Amino acid sequence: MVSAVLFVIQLLVTLVVGIYFYTQLRQQRKTQPAHRKESGREFDRLQKMRALKLSEPLAEKVRPETFQDIVGQEDGIKSLKAILCGKNPQHVLIYGPPGIGKTCAARLVLEAAKKSKDTPFKQNAPFIEMDATCVRFDERSIADPLIGSVHDPIYQGAGPLGVQGIPQPKPGAVSKAHGGVLFLDEIGELHPIQMNKLLKVLEDRKVMLESAYYNADDNATPRYIHDIFKNGLPADFRLVGATTRSPQEISPALRSRCMEVYFRALEPEEVADIAFHSAERAGYSMSHEDAQTVGRFATCGRDAVNIVQMCAGLAQMDNRTEITTADVEWVIYSGHYAARPEQRADTENRVGVVHGLAIIGSHQGATMEIEAVAQPGNGKLTITGIVEEEEIGSEGRKIKRKSTARGSLENVMTLLHSMGYRTQDYDLHINFPGGTPVDGPSAGVAMAVVAASAMTGRPVDGHVAVTGEVSVRGLVKPVGGVPGKVEAAEYAGLTTVLIPFDNQLERFEHTTIEVKPIRTLEEALDRMLLPAEVALLSAQPNAAQSIPAAVLSAEEHTAAPNS
Is the pTM of this model over 0.70? Predict the structure, then answer.
């Protein structure tokens, strides 16, 4: 009897529970179709968006696919290969202006490194690309796409583990690049906090994460999360940072951990070549003359491609397949493109004019004419151009000082006076035209030569350029940027470059221009100053065309070279 009662009670309980779950299941089935229908609509909308594509931009069509497609960066690519394709690849910083192929070169070098002998890069080594200007992070470490972060349980969307109070590590780009390359574009714009975090990762090759919600004794925490908090997330990668800034503007701590590679600005002929082939890839014809016009106004490959694409649009509106001169000129005019300065040098022998050498932009060499006029006076010195004053120091404390160019000129005049030139009898005006910022010490020898020319009336050899710092004892000291300066003189059509003896490199022996190392100012004067009788009548007016008698003794130190 008792057993029968218990059976009935058990049966009733079973029926009640069954009815409850049946009711819940029906309600769930009623709501699921609505969710599924909405999810299906969103998925279909997403697929339609993916199927809709515009035509491929010309910039994508002409993106370099091989090393041969990257114009003008043979030396930079060779350096990248030497750094990344060996047994022990290093971190590297690439300096250079925009639109010259830094990103493409880094990607291609990684592919080449995978094929190298004894390389540590595996075939599946990732190439993770980020732009430092767009790295959004939270100072509370809630989110950090570069370094990584921890999703604590208090945050929305913490998921099942968050419900259990378990913090969840989220890997950043440095961990996603593990075993490969992290390419960080515009690394000079990285936030200082992020820079310090990145330096720590480069040092430790791992990312250590922290959370106030982590409990090392919690057995409910998954084993892998315990391992991450104990040993960190792996981040053994090679950093390739690209920047358009100068080395002095980059964190010294970062530079000390990286090799440095310099990509140069493209020459007009190289930009013209990019423009010509871009038109071909777009299906349009362009004359070489029009491509050269593009090269004179475009500063990089990206500019050239943009000009060509707009020209192609004009041709398409007229149902043409040929890009005309009128198209190119209209785009240049409407786009307000400025012509690049002419780099060909005037090789006439002139009094008071010398070819100096400078470094502009991203370590690109350039020739510049330094001019001087000497008039009878009492030794007054005037120097003009972007050399007047310099500002040094940090944001909190800045001081202004006399420019190094002006100080170098004073050294030059003291030296010339000791060599027998009556500098006290002339007012000397030296000008650096063109608006190019001047590093005074490296222009020391050039200023000495042009000053001596102006005071003696002897013309300067127009086929020769010179760079070097000069001491008050007449010694020529080494300067920076000599390889780029030699290339600039060669491109400008000069035949000889005088450089400090300590800057001499064996590679200069294989250039088409004569590179002559000098130790003293007298060597420069002997080589560059010509006899007064060969001065051109068309030379610029100079109040000291004749050789003063007081300087004749100094002329013995500056005998004319063999012509």
Answer: yes
Cβ pair 130, 173 in contact under 8 A? yes
Predicted confidence (pLDDT) per residue in 69-101, tens digit: 898 899 899 999 999 999 999 999 999 988 888
First to last CA, the chain: 136
| Cα angle value 417/390/426 (rounded, 5°) | 25
Which is catalytic among the residues 149, 175, 442, 453? 442
Specify the pLDDT at position 537.
39
Question: What residue type is assigned to position 70 of the chain?
Answer: I
Residue 87 catalytic? no
E strand or H helix at 255, and its extent? helix 252-256
Helices (runs of H) and strands (runs of E) counted in the chain: 18, 22
> How far is the C-alpha of 169 from the C-alpha of 272, rounded, in Å?
50
Report the C-alpha gap between 413 and 419 in whole angstroms. Answer: 10
Active site residue 442: yes
Local structure of 203: helix, strand or coil? helix
pLDDT tens for residues 114-127? 999 899 999 999 99
DSSP 544: T
Q: Residue 449 to residues 379, 470, 526, 551: CA-CA distances in angstroms?
A: 17, 11, 10, 14
CA-based nearest residue to 535, from 457, 465, 462: 457
Compute the distance between CA of residue 460 and CA of residue 52 in angstroms, rounded to an integer: 66
Give the mean pLDDT of 374-390.
Answer: 77
